[in-house]
User: What shape does this take?
Amino acid sequence: MKKKVICLLSAALLTVASLCGCGGSGGQGSASGGDVFKIGGIGPTTGGAAIYGSDVRDAIQIAVDEVNAAGGINGFKIEYRFEDDEHNAEKAVNAYNTLKDWGMQMLIGTVTSAPCIAVSELTHTDNMFQLTPSGTAVQCVQYDNAFRVCFSDPDQGAASADYIAGNADLGSKPVAIIYDSSTEYSTGIHDSFVAKAGDLGVNIVSDTSFTTDSNTDFSVQLQTSKDAGAELLFLPIYYQEASLILQQANAMGYAPVFFGVDGMDGILGVENFDTSLAEGVYLLTPFSATAEDELTKNFVSKFEEKTGHVPNQFGADAYDAVYAIKAVCEKQDIKPSMSISEICDAMKTGMTSISLDKVLTSPTTISWTAQGEPNKDPRAVIIENGVYVLAK
Amino acid sequence: MKFTKQTKHDLITCGIVAAFYILVTILSATGHLSNHFRGLLVPLCYYAIAAVSLNLVVGILGDLSLGHAGFMCIGAFSSSLFSVAVKNSGLPSPLRFLIALVIGTLMAALFGFLIGIPVLRLNGDYLAIVTLAFGEIIKNFLSAVYLGYDEAGIHASFKSFQLQGEGKMLINGAMGIQGTPMDSSFTVAVLLLLITLAVVMNIVNSRTGRAIMAIRDNRIAAESVGINVTSYKMLAFTVSAAIAGCAGVLFSHNTTTLTASSTYFGYNVSIMILVYVVLGGIGSIRGSVIAAAVLYVLPEMLRGLSTYRMLIYSIVLIVMMLINWAPGAIAFRERYGIMAFLRRRNENRGKEGQRS
Amino acid sequence: MLNFLTYLINGLSLGSIYAIIALGYTMVYGIAKMLNFAHGDVIMIGSYLIYTGMITWGMHPVPAILLAVVGCTILGITTEKIAYKPLRGAGSSLAVLITAIGVSYFLQNLSLLIFTANPKSFTSVVGWEGVSLFGGELKIQGVTIVTIIVSLLVLAVLQFFINRTKQGQAMIAVSEDKGAASLMGINVNRTISLTFAIGSGLAAIAGALLCSAYPNLTPYTGAMPGIKAFVAAVLGGIGSIPGAMIGGLLLGVIESLSKRYISTQLSDAIVFSILIIVLLIRPTGLLGKKIQEKV
Assistant: This one.
């Protein structure tokens, strides 16, 4: 009985606290005073995918600080808040609602695909502008208010197949694939790669997978690839698992050509990783932390100072997202006093008419289609002496 | 009309849920409710339903199940499959949701029955690990399957495939089911919670419930007085699975994207529901509902603490467990707690009454 | 045939890791009758300690491991004192299971704050490359051999300790009947604390070997191996120390062979199906004791 009384009391307390805490704001999320832009971010900062969300959170902060220091957007400062979604669609919706209560006017997020799709449903209903740095699944940008900075999964799969088929060295090699069958990112790339490779006549000799629940031991998958005689190993997965695969392949004396996609970017930043293992790895990546241009050097040094590690494409995409918003806002003369819906409509037209030339995640320019996809060229790089070198 | 003490207790539980519903509706209508809190209402209900369903197995039947998220998964996928397939057929959405609900619940019940046959032969932690195993198998299987239809008919496979001509992918491997209509609402969720409470309480207070609790307290003694242990266990397990499936239906119709990943249906989710049950009081239906509500809302309310959020949540969880369960804390409460204080006052009053 | 042998050895190396984790699991379960869901996270903490010792402070692997063993032992005793001991004698054994989950969340989120989510690549504590057989066709890695030797050693020491020493006998007595044991003059609380100390110390060693074999260290590294080891311990008969060894090795071999010969996509499902089948045939695991039920 007492137990229940305590439960009841705490329940009542919590309810009251929550109602008092957030009730006042009314929750309609209309213009908030009108003197600052309120930009929200959502991504996982706890749980297994925490590294991606934390990187995005910190990179946005760096960009926001820079913009504010330089006078803000159209003379208005940016206020920025980031919420955790634990890589969970349900929690992402909660995070979105929290940000809406706070008065968010534009959303950078979410970082991962499934939560991004769930949130895009809500931003569409609210007509809130959404720019995801790294939601790669096709449906992330199915509505006209949503755009992305990264490539979509099918694009990456097809581009990889194109590159391999078109390359004189790689085209004739028998290919093995190891992918994560429990994530939409990896299966998305895998499925489009297999379809495209079939059309182009790439010879896939082995196609194995793993799941998030058993992502440490790859000896069987590697052995199967080796037994099938594969000379090129396509890895449409994230760098954490890729680093294990490189180490295990090395230990068993298997040395094919490794070919990764943008998830592979970051492998050189794994603390204490023996980068000699990654020598000769190909990857299609929009970003290179070792690039020599001023923009990249500035971002990388600030990021390292803030977090203690080298940024990968997640952070770079998020950084570009802030500057894309800034550029569009300036072009369309968007002011914080406008309503969320007005901002969104102005952003929608603005996004398709700009072309950014100073960005981290494209060697040339980046512009957007009305479907929300970025127009930028993937670049294939090879890792040589611990740095990315542009491949032929 | 006279109520027994138990009936009164049960009615109060339903009353709390109804009162909460009315309070929230009023606050919502007058615009005093934040978006954040409004978004929490439906999840709160389906986790409460799941906790009540698990309590039927853990508290009433006395077996530890670590696979209830698997039944939620079955309910979610089967109902979403239906809803997505008939989305554009002009079926009115309340009717569509009703059919989806029936399908989800029945499918979960069917799996509960099938899984129950082998599982309930085991005891204790072995039973727990086998339910965990079944939950993981369901999740693993559903995240690997591709299902779609086109002009040539229905296709199912463990590898992705291309559709010919007009057609639709229903389950797209790890991408799961996309585009489930958002038919869940707080009203529907509360109604389902009340129905769940009514069903479970009726079972508990019936002849069946007494038989099930007799099995829990002493299986051999129950058997020896002629209680059919297997069939009662099966009944409780199947009903529990069906209710968990119903929670899954609410879950899948609350967001448009449904994937069979560990985040939503892994063993850690089953364990999270178990936490609700144990903290609310094993066997206490009301406790399950309240604990589910409190523990679901807690981390959300801690959002202001940003990076320390989950750390604080874990500490609160440990402290709450110690306060609620530690024999030392219970003894302390009995001596100095509010209830003890009230009781002592009543006793004193009684004594005074006798004297005068 | 050689092909099959390769996969078998892959399975054994995976299984040896499960086995050494399962030993700690089953030890605590056998004496304290508690499923310690935080065991995997103690392993993770141990690995971070070794990493800090070896990489940040530049220590030799052996003192680094010793440091981790000491650290984990202290951690184990402290959590037992704060979170588990007050619940001894609680109304249900589930109460302590839930606090263990709370401790697991706590450790994960604490290391997330301290060590950040950025993965760290572990340097193997085993410097030896391993052996090549059949002219290099068949390779057995050094860490696999070391792991198997260490787990056999641990198994032998534990068996000796439990069956031949006074403290060990006290543990058996406590696991059979706490009340009777305390009547016989055994300090039950101290015996259980000792069990946690040993279990956590073993976790540090398991962490060293786990991260040497799969050198990727994040705050969530321990969670999944912890659950797999739990499955292995149940497979072998939870509470039985040789059972944990056999269960671990078997689980690794099953996982490896099913990935090779059935499906990589469904390997988790297959492993769990086999567990279910084994438990249906032998309801208390391979070496578990049959419990005679009494009224």
About this structure: The longest strand of chain C covers residues 130-133. Residues 2-32 of chain C form the longest helix (31 residues). The two ends of chain C are 53 Å apart (CA to CA). The CA atoms of residues 45 and 152 of chain C lie 24 Å apart.
